[in-house]
Amino acid sequence: PGLAVIIVGEDPASQTYVSNKEKTSKKLGFYSEVHRLPEEVSQEEVLQMVHRLNSDDNIHGILVQLPLPKHIQEEPIIHAILPEKDVDGFHPVNLGNLMIGAQSYIPCTPHGVIKMLEYINYDLKGKNATVVGRSNIVGKPVALLLLERHATVTICHSRTQNLPEICRRADVLVVAVGRPEMVKGDWIKPGAVVIDVGINSVDGKLVGDVDFEAASKVAGYISPVPGGVGPMTITMLMVNTLQSFKNKYNLK
């Protein structure tokens, strides 16, 4: 299986993610390419690279590391990736298939969240699941995946009123807002499963969107930051790349 990553600029968090993806690819015996482009590269040049990788038979998965610099529009770049090579699961075809419950590449972080719940044998049927954050990358797809597993899903965002009260009703709480330690311990229902997708740098230390120390005293399960959802995101990227390889050669 071949995975190609395109990264534009020098964003430190993106560099770390890409480095970890490259290491994992090689450790698994995948074929790996990383294309590091300068910050000032044009949108057309990025598109040309995507088109070249689309037609490269050695590459089964293409990932464009987000965010891109402000002068490059993300949407045309993501749309340019062939749906069958879109191992990030962001192409409208794959997101549309996810919406209707058809076969698709599932976005890696939401898929990782679901795998964590499966690992603890958590039965979502009829449970109250609250997602804090409505991004196309995490919030919306993870809500669809929870709904597909028969949870009753609430999506919260910056305009939500009484957020702490809504969080306290959740049997499963998924937080993906990018605000350090926003969710406090007294927002958590005793015994709830808390999955913290956030990763924020505060005084040189990485912290999540949940106040881990306080929340861990109340929650039944809680994912740490770092070391929780991040490694699962990379794992599911590899799963999608392997699936793309299998699909190309009709392997079971």
Structure description:
- The protein is built from nine helices and ten strands.
- The strands form three sheets. Strands 5-4-6-7-10 form a five-stranded parallel sheet.
- With 252 residues, the chain is an alpha/beta fold.
- The longest helix is centred in the last third of the chain and has 20 residues, at 229-248.
- The chain is globular.
- β8 and β9 form a beta hairpin.
- The two termini are 14 Å apart.
- The relative contact order is 0.13.
- The protein has helices at residues 12-27, 43-54, 74-80, 92-100, 108-119, 139-148, 163-168, 212-215, 229-248, and strands spanning 2-8, 31-37, 61-64, 128-132, 152-156, 172-175, 193-196, 200-202, 205-207, 221-222.
Task: Figure out the total of helices.
Answer: 9
Q: Structural class, from secondary structure content?
A: alpha/beta
Percent helix: 25-40%
Shape: globular
Distance between the termini: 14 Å
The radius of gyration computed from the alpha-carbon positions, rounded to a whole number of angstroms, is 18 Å
Kindly report the average pLDDT value.
Answer: 96
Low-confidence stretches: none
Give the total of beta strands.
10
Question: What is the H/E order?
Answer: EHEHEHHHEHEHEEEEHEH
Percent range for β-strand residues: 15-25%
Major sheet summary line: 5 strands, parallel
